[in-house]
Specification:
Elements: E1 3-9, H1 15-29, E2 36-42, H2 54-62, H3 79-82, E3 85-88, H4 91-99, E4 108-111, H5 132-154
Parallel strand pairs: 1-2, 1-3, 3-4
Bound molecules: 4-nitrophenyl phosphate (4NP).
4-nitrophenyl phosphate binds near residues 11, 13 and 42.
């Protein structure tokens, strides 16, 4: 059975779609697209059905990632029973996720950056109200943690 990974942020238009697109490309390059299933969601409901933020799509595109097919959806408690990894971008979203938890989750629930052993950051900072630098930082952190996550899953 495929390993199922869900990335979660607040709006599901900046950080989690970036993680979704970056990790998907890494998984595809490793030829593991049938073994690892990826999705993303937001704890908020403002951007349901919407494509990712234009700035996130532009910054990702400059590094060779296509986020344009992705659409926003809201995280729900049932995701905790569906996914082997529910990975939050920051503590605030992790708190919302665990507050919705009604029974023992199926798998690991935690912060995405835990999978980057070398990162001094524990959280991916929200780039929504800042400039383009924030989106570059998101990509840097996400690319690095994606490598660590793939290595971790391959060792399972
Ligand atoms: P994200 O960024 O959680 O990385 O998708 C945000 C997107 C939208 C909002 C906040 C953060 N918002 O308030 O609409």
């Amino acid at each position: 059975m495929a390993v199922k990974v869900l990335f979660v942020c607040l709006g599901n238009i900046c950080r989690s779609p970036t993680a979704h697109g970056v990790f998907q490309q890494l998984v595809n390059q490793a030829g593991l697209q049938n073994k690892i299933e990826i999705d993303s969601a937001g704890t908020g409901d403002w951007h349901i059905g919407k494509p990712p933020d234009k700035r996130a799509m532009q910054a990702a595109s400059e590094r060779g990632y296509d986020l344009s097919p992705l659409r926003g959806r809201q995280f729900s408690a049932s995701d905790l029973q569906q996914f082997d990894y529910v990975l939050a971008m920051d503590q605030e979203n992790l708190k919302v996720i665990t507050a919705l938890q009604q029974s023992k989750p199926r798998g690991h629930v935690g912060l995405f950056l835990e999978f980057d052993k070398n990162s001094e950051f524990r959280e991916v900072p929200d780039p929504y109200y800042g400039g383009n630098k924030g989106f570059e930082k998101v990509l840097d952190l996400v690319e690095s943690a994606s490598q660590g996550l793939l290595e971790h899953i391959q060792k399972r």
